[in-house]
Amino acid sequence: MDILAATLRPTPEQPVLIAAPFLSRRTLERLRDRGFAYADLTGNVRLVLAQPGLFIDTTGARENPAPSTRDRKSLKGPKAGRLVRALCDFRPPVGLRELAKRAGIDPGYASRVVDFLDREALITRTTRGPITMVDWQGLLTRWSQEYSPFRRQGAAMYLGARGLPAVIERLKRAKMRYAVSGSWAAAAVAPVAPPRLLLVYVERPEEAEQTLDIRPADAGANVAILTPFDDVVFERTSMKDGVEIAGLSQVAVDLLTSPGRGPNEGEALMQWMQENEDEWRT
To answer: Is 78-144 assigned to CATH 2.60.120.10?
Structure first.
């Protein structure tokens, strides 16, 4: 996609048409943003002409009606999450086997997910070569459509009666394994608004309840104890003011799927991450 954009300059007077059996939703968005005309066999068509005046924009299938039996179609599951984190946290270029090693997954599985991300135009790679570009903002947004720590009873809501500062002080002295995410973690690196909900990944929720002096709450909760989907939530953390903060890619996706103003805070955090990649990406 980026190669096309660099070599071709479509205009309404001289449109460039991209045709394929099927174009994914992400690919359609990127083609539209870059001014390309497109058409696929499922009915996704967009064509804009200046002379004669013509505008065609139709929607076809959102999913490939004839996928390969080995085609990956989603980012569900712990292994996909590990791969997404690795793609976001480490700068390209990276080969497939090195990527699989970083994510701690099988190279065959990594290959199928990378093929899916390539079709979704979320990465760029050379033919039989390394991945050279990762649209990590788009990748986190895409992951948030299928992953959330609040799904499948992954979050238990609590109230710290003495407020978040008291809970934070207890976290600083805690011996348990944990990683803070959500608004508090985002505010520690890129203050946007005072955090109201503290998200904490822990291995044993019952231990956290006692350690942090919090009580279950149906309303007015200010702490969410999260069940890790995978140990990767405890990897590539950083220490901020004596508190263990989850990797910013994890914090961002958790915010994008959080209730209330969480998604807006996630967008603000990703803007900071884009402007300060050296601060969090290796």
So the answer is: no
